[in-house]
């Protein structure tokens, strides 16, 4: 069982300069996430450079994460495959090695019809007992998971949550109105994090949390405790950084931010390369300005959930 709520970082994958997994830095980052109070760890998403990871590397990341979280929070792995057969194989292997949940994207590289997409999700769900979050991101992946499609998917009891990244936060209200607590809703867009939580999102699959875990969790906890003004003060400071998440180079951007906070490196896996030239200067300027006025956080842990 997964309690589908809270901040769940889509963590970056750490690499050495020799393009191997950097487990020492990965451990340092995961511990920072846990210390800040995140509610789950999501491996192998877009930020995790999933398309470049080998099967053995994914297994290592799952096992390492399970060891670090010590059962306190769930470890979830992303499924983003080109074929249904491979997606099922990845899901079943993840369950075998101990992952506690899945986040599933629609089929990759093929613009599936609604029927094909639903069939794909159902096939994976029926192949595993793991709880599942559906990732709805038509902006980046060109397939929208509509309310009617979600209705069809509700026959699979282990489909329990949706990561809502349509950029239309009113869709959160539509999902909650139609499905109630049967389907938990996470915002998947950093620049809509606070607004989405205020109108009823159960959680936030975040990106900049990779570099700034305490600030991200603080916003979530303050909103849930009805302390919107306090949350908004942090969010205003955070916004220039959060905008680094809505870019094709989000991985490079966020890894640069992780360097600034001491819990990551800039190493990416080719064909990605570290930022160059004017864009690198711009991103570093955003990060450096934020670091110069990083806010002192209120005590956000153990807040009452009653406003």
Question: What would your notes on this structure say?
Answer:
It holds the Pfam family DHDPS. This protein has 307 residues and is of the alpha/beta class. 44% of the residues lie in helices and 11% in strands. The chain has helices at residues 23-36, 55-69, 84-97, 114-125, 138-141, 147-153, 170-179, 193-198, 213-224, 228-242, 250-260, 277-292; strands at 6-9, 41-43, 75-79, 101-104, 132-136, 159-164, 184-187, 203-206. Strands 1-8-7-6-5-4-3-2 form an eight-stranded parallel beta sheet. Helix 1 runs parallel beside helix 9 (213-224) and helix 9 runs antiparallel to helix 10. The protein starts with 5 loop residues before the first strand and ends in a 15-residue tail after the last helix.
What kind of sheet is the major sheet?
8 strands, parallel
CATH class: Alpha Beta
Separate helix tally: 12
Supply the CATH superfamily name.
Aldolase class I
Helix content: 40-55%
**Which structural category fits the helices and strands?**
alpha/beta
Number of strands: 8
Number of domains: 1
* Strand order, largest beta sheet: 1-8-7-6-5-4-3-2
């Amino acid at each position: 069982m997964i309690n589908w709520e809270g901040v769940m970082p889509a963590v970056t994958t750490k690499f050495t300069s020799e393009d191997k997994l950097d487990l020492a830095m990965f451990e340092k980052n995961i511990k920072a996430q846990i210390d800040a109070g995140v509610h789950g760890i999501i491996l192998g998403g877009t930020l995790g450079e999933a398309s470049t990871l080998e099967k053995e590397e994914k297994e290592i990341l799952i096992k390492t994460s399970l060891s670090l979280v010590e059962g306190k929070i769930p470890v979830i792995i992303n499924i983003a495959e080109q074929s249904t057969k491979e997606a099922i194989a990845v899901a079943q292997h993840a369950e075998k090695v101990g992952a506690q949940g899945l986040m599933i994207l629609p089929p990759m590289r093929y613009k599936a019809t609604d029927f094909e997409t639903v069939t794909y999700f159902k096939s994976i769900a029926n192949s595993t007992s793991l709880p599942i979050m559906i990732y709805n991101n038509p902006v980046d992946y060109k397939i929208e998971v509509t309310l009617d499609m979600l209705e069809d998917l509700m026959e699979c009891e282990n489909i329990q949550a949706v990561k809502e990244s349509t950029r239309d936060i009113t869709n959160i209200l539509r999902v909650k109105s139609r499905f109630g607590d049967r389907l938990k809703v996470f915002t998947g867009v950093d620049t809509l994090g606070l607004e989405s939580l205020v109108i009823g999102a159960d959680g936030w699959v975040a990106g900049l949390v990779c570099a700034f875990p305490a600030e991200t969790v603080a916003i979530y906890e303050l909103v849930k405790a009805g302390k919107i003004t306090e949350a908004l003060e942090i969010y205003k400071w955070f916004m220039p950084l959060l905008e680094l998440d809505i870019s094709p180079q989000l991985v490079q951007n966020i890894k640069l931010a992780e360097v600034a906070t001491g819990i990551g490196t800039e190493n990416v896996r080719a064909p990605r390369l570290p930022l160059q030239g004017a864009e690198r200067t711009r991103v570093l300027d955003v990060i450096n300005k934020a670091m110069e006025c990083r806010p002192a956080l209120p005590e956000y842990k153990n807040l009452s959930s009653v406003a």
